[in-house]
Amino acid sequence: MFDFVVSLVERTGYFGIALLMFAENVFPPIPSELIMPLGGFVAAKGELNIVGVVVAGSIGSLLGAIFWYYIGRLVGADRLKRWASRHGRWLGLSPHEVDAARDWFQRHGWAAVFFGRMLPGIRTLISVPAGMARMSLLPFLLYSAAGTIIFTVLLTGAGYLLKSNFELIGEYMNPISNVVVIGLVLGYIYRVVTFDRRNAAKAD
């Protein structure tokens, strides 16, 4: 993966950065923690402009966020509630919890989107509930763009400063991403195991 990312960015420049960041949002195992620092390193060598790197990375990332936003709108909360009534255990959700999650997101949606776009492991996922809650597209784009730009500026700047040691950023960030993903998996397993008990308590 490392060699592929380096080769693509060196051959295609801004387009490659935008394409990789789009792919990273659609297929999370491609790490933004490598892509943007690499762009910063290439900019430090004078082969790309650092502002162009940030713009390209942010555009690609936003396109990926929009993809998942419309997936969320396509599924919708009502359809998810029907799925939850039939397959709630494996979804880890009951229809009541779908309503509660939608109400929570409608109250805190802008903050969830803004801060979520800066968190490894959450960046991609946060677009789905935004779409399901039918958050207006313009606010979604504004808050997504703000969080995304901050994230890409930090990673690109770190790569620019570290130069040839840019891969160290991935070494420090990857464990954070892994912890988040493991936490999500464990949370899902817990919800599957305790599904009947939780819903019985709600019925009482």
TrEMBL record:
Any Pfam family hit: VTT_dom
The protein's name: DedA family protein
Keyword Transmembrane attached: yes
UniProt-listed PANTHER family: ALKALINE PHOSPHATASE LIKE PROTEIN, UNDECAPRENYL PHOSPHATE TRANSPORTER A
Topology in the lipid bilayer: Multi-pass membrane protein
Coiled coil feature spans: none
Domain of life: Bacteria
Localization of this protein: Cell membrane
Transmembrane spans: 12-30, 50-71, 140-160, 172-193
